[in-house]
């Protein structure tokens, strides 16, 4: 008896998902075994190197929120878990409950380890679900061949490493792609549900309202007047804003500050000072030359290349996907650059799925393989950095 076949979009995205995630995890695991860490391992939830693999960087903050809830130490100059939005810790917590993380007899280390593994599984699963939505969105515009190329390029992207870790990127990509797909289909309340989730995943989720409003305006221009308001449309537009407002209200009750989630970002080096980081970078290049700058700041250069690619693809996004999606890329990219320079820009661009669609339909079909191979090699490099505690930011 043959096993049941997967629906078309799931089957089409399965190879990109399975091969890319498996390769990244294996690259990280063998990097730990063969290269090791630059110093003492900062966090260890297990003596087994593979089980401990997802315990990297921000993943430990999400575990802290999922296990202990939000805590406030009274000052915004210290790194604190209120910087992290609640949607991913909540899904991690749901998975952790199934794995026994909240069991009364579970020791602290055991509870954290179970929560970590739950977050890892949630991230991997939601990334596949996200690829399905990106595939459907792309297929509606350019057919199945372009859709396959889009999701493969996205999965191979150097900074897609974060889809192989307990991070919020997979959930954000899923929620934002689903919100767009259902909004375009005029499925307002489904879009509103996903949009509300977007607003709870990351602070820039509230910006989703802007491109959705542009899509609504374009739709209204193309329709004959019908003399009635569509309440569902307004609910969908308001959902990301409402989510941010509710989370800010909750944190205000906890901390006494409406924007505690934003204020503590400075503890990670995120401040709105574009002229400072841009001037420093240009002065370093002018003084030491491009080659010396690359040698001194290789990770910054990698993130700079991601920013340059995103900027170069803005016009192709507008030409192939439309103005709302070019605006979506723009309003997400500019605040990231303004608040932290090139720090983490590669990570932010990994969720801007219209970029990969525009790239897929703009390059010649015979060149797509070369792009995917090049992306994959660099993703292997970023995986080595990430999993061996060498910052890829």
Protein model, in words:
The chain is built from 17 helices and no strands. It has one domain. The model has no long low-confidence stretch (mean pLDDT 89). It is mainly alpha-helical and 393 residues long. Helix content is 68%, strand content 0%.
Put the structure in a nutshell.
The chain is mainly α and about 400 residues long. The protein has helices at about 10-35, 60-70, 85-100, 110-155, 170-185, 190-200, 210-220, 230-255, 260-265, 275-290, 290-295, 300-310, 315-320, 325-340, 345-350, 355-360, 370-385.
Q: Structural class, please?
A: mainly alpha
Rg over C-alpha atoms, rounded to the nearest angstrom:
21 Å
Average of pLDDT = 89
- Separate helix tally: 17
Q: Which stretches are low in confidence, meaning pLDDT under 50 for 5 or more residues running? A: none
Termini separation comes to 49 Å
Q: Tell me, what's the shape?
A: globular
Order of helices and strands: HHHHHHHHHHHHHHHHH
Query: Could you tell me the number of beta strands?
Result: 0
| Percent range for β-strand residues | under 5%
Main beta sheet strand tally, sense and closure: none
Our count of domains comes out at 1
Q: Helical residue percent?
A: 55-70%
